[in-house]
Amino acid sequence: MENIESQFQILTEQLESVRKEIMSKSIKDLIIVQNRIYSQVEALTWLSQALMLFGSLPPLRGWAASPDVLLRLHEHIRFQKPKVVVECGSGSSTLVIADALRQNGQGVLISLEHSDKFGAQTRSLLDREELTPWVDLRIADLELWAGPHMNSGKDEVLRWYSASSLVGIKDVDLLFVDGPPGKTCKYARYPALPAIADRLAPNAQIWMDDTVRQEETDIAKDWAENYGCSLEFFSLEKGLGVLTSALPNGELAVDELSKTPAFNVGLDDAIASAFEAHIKSRSLGVTLQFGISSVTLHLAEALKSENAGKLCCVAEPSELLDELQLEIQKRGLESVVSLISAPLEAWNYLYPDSTDLALKRWFDAETLEQLPPLDWVVVDGPDWQAKPYTRYPALPSVLDKLAQNAEVWMLGSESQQVRSVVNAWCSDYSLTCDSSSSRIFKLKV
Ligand SMILES: C[S@@+](CC[C@H](N)C(=O)[O-])C[C@H]1O[C@@H](n2cnc3c(N)ncnc32)[C@H](O)[C@@H]1O
User: Fold this and answer.
1) What residues have CB less than 8 Å from 183, skipping those under 6 apart?
2) Which domains does the chain have, with CATH numbers?
3) Which one of 47, 118, 125, 137 would you pick to mutate in the ligand 1 pocket, going by the greatest count of ligand atoms within 8 A of its CB?
4) Per-residue pLDDT tens for 193-245?
5) Is 411 exposed, middle or buried (0-12, 13-18, 19+ CB in 10 A)?
6) pTM above 0.85, yes or no
């Protein structure tokens, strides 16, 4: 009887701890969702203020572009004053782009639309807003596409906007890709760049909407590689990939950084002196490094010489980790550094894109749970493995552990993946980021 009672007691305690864990994670997720809704309301408020329309926009949910990307589009056009804008897929974006061109007093939008029904809706909105002179709305059925495609060689019929819709298009400064619909075929938006590439002005930008979807992310990456564009992802509601096409002399710009995996960025003088300055300016208890690299030994030595607390490094089990352990012993740094070998496991919480669940992984929760309060987190791992948001969990996974005035430093600010993760943190957690230091993004949390 006593045995049953004690087992019951243990079970009750376990249940209570699971309940608490679920509650705490749900609350964190709710706060993120709340922040995301707030961001759309905020963007819509600024957008309504910027637009000079007589009536309202159609609802910006479902098929329509989201307020945040529309605001960014409007601002980009108002500031950059493009002369030729092309969009694939008409709707609210047509009104927003045309309004910005009208306010600029220059430029034209060529809008490609395949649906008579939705094209007619757009046309009547443009008439109502007296925006028709700013838009060349070209409505025509999709046609068979025989050019390069990510879906070539499959049985599916490939379609895209008609060749006749492209007549006369040249010197395009901005291409906004938001159609045709995904159900057209796999990688339905892929032909946009092959079709328009030789019609772009130098330094043109290509904006791919909806990069929270894997297909759109894959297309943007393929374009960046095959058309020599630089690519940056922005953590907007539906995700945005911005590609910049060419150098001023018209030669294609290959973004070396987009080809460089950003793991273990390595120590340089700028990083070393930023570390030293931080260690000298703060009283540090525990520093955490995600990943291991040449940075680890330097950090440990600098912390030791200033008597500035301990360094924990969390990294995947590897031979490198074993070698580093030996080096730490050789240099007499055991009292300063603990290397923690932690396997990656499923990361089930919010993530900026809709990556397959199997690819969302982070260091195991049990290991992270045991970390002490942290004053400084340096993110330099794990390896990206070609996924844009691999290091996103670095912040949410230790949020509970951060001491007051803690700082999170993300190394490798020259890399596109790093910039995407930091953008996502800033918008999900309402943070501002100091990027004045070479190769480091510094966030105060
Ligand atoms: C992603 S939508 C384009 C949205 C547009 N750029 C905007 O900001 O509203 C792509 C295509 O879906 C079609 N579409 C628009 N509204 C739709 C709706 N409510 N239901 C189904 N298809 C729609 C149109 O043919 C449009 O070209």
Assistant:
1) none
2) 49-255 (3.40.50.150), 269-444 (3.40.50.150)
3) 118
4) 999 998 999 889 999 999 999 999 999 999 998 888 989 999 999 999 999 97
5) buried
6) no
